[in-house]
Amino acid sequence: MSGVYDRQYQRQKFVEKLTPYLFISPWILGFFFFTLGPLVFSFVMSFYDWPVVGDREFIGTQNYEVMLTQDPLFWDSLWVTIKFGLFFVPFNIVLGLLLAVLLNQKVIGSGIFRTIFYLPSVISGVALVTIWAWIYSHEYGILNFLLGLAGIQGPNWLGDPNWALLAIVVASLWGLGGTMLILLTGLQSIPKELYEAAKMSGVPGWARLIFITIPMLSPMLLFTFITSIIAAFQQLTIALLLTGGGPLESTYFFAMYIYDNAFKHFEMGYAAANSWVMFLIILALSMMVMKSSSAWVYYEGEMKKGGNKDA
Amino acid sequence: MAGVQIDGLEKKFGNLRVLKGIDLDIRDGEFVSFLGPSGCGKTTLLRSIAGLEDINGGQVVLGGQPISKLPPAKRDIAMVFQNYALYPHMNVYKNLSFGLSLNGVPKAEIEERVLNAARILQITELLKRRPKQLSGGQRQRVAIGRAIVRDPKLFLLDEPLSNLDAGLRVTMRVELANLHKRLGVTMIYVTHDQVEAMTLSDRVVVLDQGKVAQFGTPLELFYAPQNLFVASFIGSPKMNFLDVAAQAAGDKQLKVSADDLFRDITIALETSPANVAGPHKLGIRPDNIELVTQDEAHMSGQVMLVERLGTESQVHIRLDNGEDFVAIARGTHPAATGDHVFLKFPAQHCHIFNGEGQAYPRELDAETRSLIDRQKSLHGAAQKGEEK
User: Fold this and answer.
1) Per the database record, which ranges form the ABC transporter domain (chain B) (predicted)?
2) ipTM of the assembly?
């Protein structure tokens, strides 16, 4: 008797344990087939000569060797992306923070401004690029028209290798609404008594920003720092549609280089290897930032081991 | 150190008047509590003095200097916040020194002041810790320390003990009293806890809907409440009230009668009342009600509930006229639910209020009077000590 009872009990236990997995199974299937699968697949691909049509051939690490030693475009596009990131990441965070601080003031209509600043993040990338193409246009652009009113002969923003990258930086900063929103939420979660206590003891406004706001906001700043780096490396749409990588490949981003290898030259294996290098670079950068974070990020919840002893 | 004078202070939030003309004269070195129920404006009044709220009228004078137009930092006031408002990312030392270092105080002096405050509050060994690593009581000390290091003319404390557990609250209450004695600085303390207000304060401001209901020593509030609000707010369990009619009876006396009262009560007053027409209220505290036999009683009722606390029994009684009264009897009083009891209201313990809720100042017995006078004079003596 007890054997039967035990088996029933075991069965019941098993069903109980299985149930939660059944509930999340749609997500798990999606993860395996559409995220992990392609990930592993692309890793395998990166060791093959893998044309879209024709025979595939295992070539070991040759893709990686060629990329690093014989393909100047790899280094050029990487350099363009790094230059872009050096402008984009700090501006994205600093401007996002300044806007968030401004919108956090109790001003009439701050809700309207919040919406306005976030709007570009909602607009489709293509529409955004169309707007910027119109702004930057050499002959008919509104920017050069306005500069002309001030008596300045504006450059050919998208046609001049000296200006094109900067033009793309500005256009991509238009989407800093997301960063702003994250930082604004962070600002609103800082207890206002901290500022009142500081005000009572005569701490000036700039010091409140530097010594209270920024440390209290540091977890959000860390998050936006890392997501900005990732966004910088993934920059494709704006450059692809606005300049197509030109002029003189001054806006030929790393992501565009991968895109061209895959869908113009149909070198799927090579493109996969490119992607893995990009992944490793982003991973390394993110880890460096995370590593440094114990020195400058303050977590309300727990004390990080090692760093963070005294601010 | 300095006294605080507040004249006709007005504060509105939108169209809502939260402070309706507050006048107060707080003496140098005094410990004053703002006491009242939630929404009475006590915290707003404190924040107006601090300069964290803009006021809509009147003025605040600190140590002879009008401060209403000054920014908070220039007022020479320190404030301790209800939730401590410690900077979580700084250690205790930094929390104490932060304001000073940004105001150009020399490093050596900062260290001296911080160590001094830490010594007074016994938190020297905590200076390297973060607020997260401190207990509630320790955080409270740090918050007070941040006020001490500034050596201000006036301390403002906004319900500083309300986040502590009951036992710690009593300990911190005693420490606060000692701290006040030691520093001798004027302190204003906001609380909704009448025990804190009564035990800590030289004088208490009772606030009711943005107005000062009474400003007096703790015993004055208890034995000589000026109006119905103070009478019912101070004391626990609350004072019992009965609708009555009154008539003047001889010199400085008032005779109280009602259909429900078995016999009239004659209350001795300090002055003869001018006009005694209209409805009145008789007030009597639960501990002054005596459970007696029928021939002495003023009213009778049925016992609904007896709460036995050991030293006393709180007897909840439904009077024959339907009113609910609470009487306090001795711990071993035999009254039980369902019993019919007879109540006596001794005249010397009765309070009487006119139709507007204003009390007739009653004549206090010699003992109570001398106690109140002593509370006033004790404070006066402390005053003189400070001035030396």
Assistant:
1) 4-234
2) 0.82
